[in-house]
Amino acid sequence: MFSMPGLPKILVLIIIIVVIWQAFKIIGRVQKARIEEAQARAREAQAQARGQRQTARPQGAANRAAGARNTVSETLECRVCGAYVARGMGACGKPGCPFGA
Predict the structure, then answer these.
(1) How does DSSP assign 30-44, residue by residue?
(2) N or C: which end of the chain has fewer CB within 10 A?
(3) From start to end of 1-101, where are the E strands?
(4) Which domain holds residue 88?
(5) Per-residue model confidence as pLDDT tens digits over 2-45
(6) How many other C-beta atoms lie within 10 A of the C-beta of residue 81?
(7) CB within 8 A of 86, min separation 6: which ones?
(8) 46: helix, strand or coil
(9) Do 52 and 84 fall into the same domain?
C-alpha cells in the first residue's frame, strides 16, 4: 500500500521545507527592522521634545530673573467689540472702547 518515497520526492520535500523556513526568516527580519525603525523614530521625537523643553527653560529663567511674574489676570469683555481684555492692559483698539480712557 505505502512504498518508500523515491529520491526525487524526498529532495522536493526538503526544498519546499527550506523555502518555507527561509521565507519565515525573511518575514521575521522585516518585522524586526520595522519595529526598530519605529522605536528609533520615537526616541528621536522624544529627544527633540526634550531639546525644545530645555531651550524653553532658560528663557523662562531669564524672564524670572528680569522680574517678570507669572500671574493670572482677570479678563473683562469689551462692550463695543466683545473681545476679552485683561484688566489694566488698556484699550482693545476699537473706537469707543471703554478701557481706552
Answers:
(1) HHHHHHHHHHHHHHH
(2) N
(3) 75-77, 84-86
(4) 72-101
(5) 678 899 999 999 999 999 999 999 999 999 999 999 999 999 98
(6) 14
(7) 73, 74, 75, 76
(8) helix
(9) no
